[in-house]
Structure prediction request, 176 residues.
Amino acid sequence: MTRPPLPLTVSVTGHRVLPHPASTDAAIDRVLDQLARQFPDRKIRAVSALAEGADRVAAHRVLARAGNALTAVLPMPAAEYRKDFATDASQQDFNALLAAADEVVELPPQPTRRQAYESAGAYGLDRADVLLAIWDGLTARGPGGTAEVVAMARARRLPLAWINGADVSYENWPAG
Prediction:
């Protein structure tokens, strides 16, 4: 019996506030289309911390395609993490994605929230075949942020699909 190919693991990082949500959705779909063309026999597994913004948008776009899967990486226990989501709608969206995930990983406690987020970013990179970054290209604003995750991915020479969140354009994509 032949086993199906392993999924292509796409770790997600990005900003919580996306100035162009509809354009960001379309840009993520273009990245997913390109991955499907480059790896036609592999489904996609998104690895996402399910933070507001880029993490959730990408998770929704991946799950909208048949056969794809989601690993939710929680930087802290879910009840504590929910405190970061101020509105009922945000908490409901988090809960829905958490329920849709076929794998939920709760990371060990860290001394600070920033370190917990940094740990989640590193977890995603450790498992990624590709990093999907929805990022404005600006320097890091602190540990665990999008710029830092992108820098770690580049240091590892991990393929990077960068959607410039400021103007929703591609900035970098490996050719093959």
Summary: The CA atoms of residues 67 and 173 lie 24 Å apart. Confidence is low (pLDDT under 50) at residues 170-176.
